[in-house]
Amino acid sequence: MVKIELSQLEESVVNVVKENHLTSFEILKKVENISMILSLYNILDQLNSKGVIKSYIKQDLKYHCAA
After folding, report:
1. Is 38:60 a contact under the CB 8 Å cutoff?
2. Cα angle: 19, vertex 44, 3; to 5 degrees
3. Helix orientation angle between 8-19 and 37-50, rounded to the nearest 10 degrees
4. Per-residue pLDDT tens digits for 5-28
5. Which tens digits make up the pLDDT trace of 30-64?
6. Domain annotation for the chain: domains and CATH numbers
7. Distance from C-alpha of 22 to C-alpha of 20, rounded to nearest angstrom
8. Which of 5, 12, 63, 64 could form a disulfide with 21 if both were Cys (CB 3.0 to 4.6 A apart)?
9. Are 2 and 15 in contact (CB under 8 A)?
């Protein structure tokens, strides 16, 4: 199994979405170190490309969860 290196912010986001499937705004409210939604979008894109999280759309809202 390959160990994926994550930054501290990436780990914070992964820990939050391990508990529940959340929207970007809900993640932003729970992770204290991220103050801007654009920064969060970049982190979510990086985590998606690493295969650490998955995203899906339900009732016109995009949710994120741990892979």
Report:
1. no
2. 75
3. 80
4. 999 999 999 999 999 999 999 999
5. 998 888 889 999 999 999 999 999 999 999 999 99
6. 8-66 (1.10.10.10)
7. 6
8. 63
9. no
